[in-house]
Design goal:
The structure holds two protein chains of two kinds. By secondary structure, chain A is of the alpha/beta class. Chain A is 41% helix and 38% strand. The longest helix of chain B has 22 residues. The chains are: A alpha/beta, B alpha+beta.
Chain lengths: 106, 144
């Protein structure tokens, strides 16, 4: 699992790819937090387009980043979720924390 | 009900094995011809149970996780995930959504996911002895 982090116009966009589970979430959360602490963005977008699997550790990942973004007065957005990942997010009620969007199927 | 097929695997309680356990179970149940949503549901439930054994059962120390998967005649899959870790004091509390004894990054949703994605979940545990999670799901495949 990898995270490509881009910063532009007060937004950090994290392109996640691979599988998000307890193991991989612990490996990438520090680099996302570093970027948030250094850049103080007003928006954090987590892009799940290339995430092939997610369990509830992905929920912990989003929630942890949401809490950190709150401390810098920012908000969070989760986009391009697969149906499986979206199912897990909705189970957790994450729509209450920010925008949660499924991958658009054309 | 007779088992048509069964496998057992024993693995170290290392988080790096979480992915392996998902792949191993999904490969074995392929013969039941599940559809993509069923495979995803089962992989996710297995991931939750295995993670619980690693994070809570063994508190990230070394132990063994025992996984048994059985396929029955009526296309019901039964998955048993057992650890010999610390066990659960209050199973009802542990299974409450959002309840967690771990830190900040754990959502407390493992059991909620298992119960939502599988047809049945049964947890037995004895403090100091370990925990066993048995989950079942009927596979419909493309027959729905």
């Amino acid at each position: 699992m990898s995270a490509k982090i881009e910063y532009k116009d007060k937004e950090i966009r994290v392109f996640l790819s691979g599988e998000i589970d307890h193991h991989s979430a612990s490996l990438i959360r520090a680099s996302i937090d570093d970027a948030i602490i250094h850049k103080h963005p007003s928006l954090l977008t987590l892009d799940f387009a290339n995430v092939t699997f997610m369990d509830s550790s992905g929920i912990g990942l989003v929630m942890g980043r949401y809490k950190l973004m709150k401390t810098v007065q920012g908000r969070i957005r989760v986009v391009n979720l697969s149906p499986g990942a979206y199912k897990v997010m909705v189970l957790a009620g994450l729509e209450k924390l920010g925008e949660i969007k499924q991958k658009e199927v054309i | 009900m007779d088992t048509v097929n069964e496998m057992k695997l024993t693995m170290d309680s290392r988080s790096i094995n979480e992915g392996f356990s998902r792949v191993a179970v999904s490969a074995f149940i392929a013969s039941a011809d599940p559809n993509i949503e069923e495979i995803t549901d089962i992989k996710t439930a297995v991931s939750e149970a295995v993670t619980n054994a690693i994070v809570h059962g063994y508190r990230e120390k070394n132990g063994k996780i025992y996984i048994t998967v059985s396929i029955f005649e009526n296309n019901i899959i039964r998955i048993k995930i057992r650890d010999k870790g610390v066990g659960i004091d209050d199973i009802d509390k542990a299974m409450e959504p959002l309840f967690t004894t771990a830190g900040e990054e754990r959502a407390g949703l493992g059991f909620a996911v298992m119960e939502s994605f599988m047809d049945k979940v049964r947890v037995t545990s004895k403090p100091g002895m370990g925990t066993t999670v048995v989950m079942e799901k009927k596979i419909w495949g493309k027959r729905l």
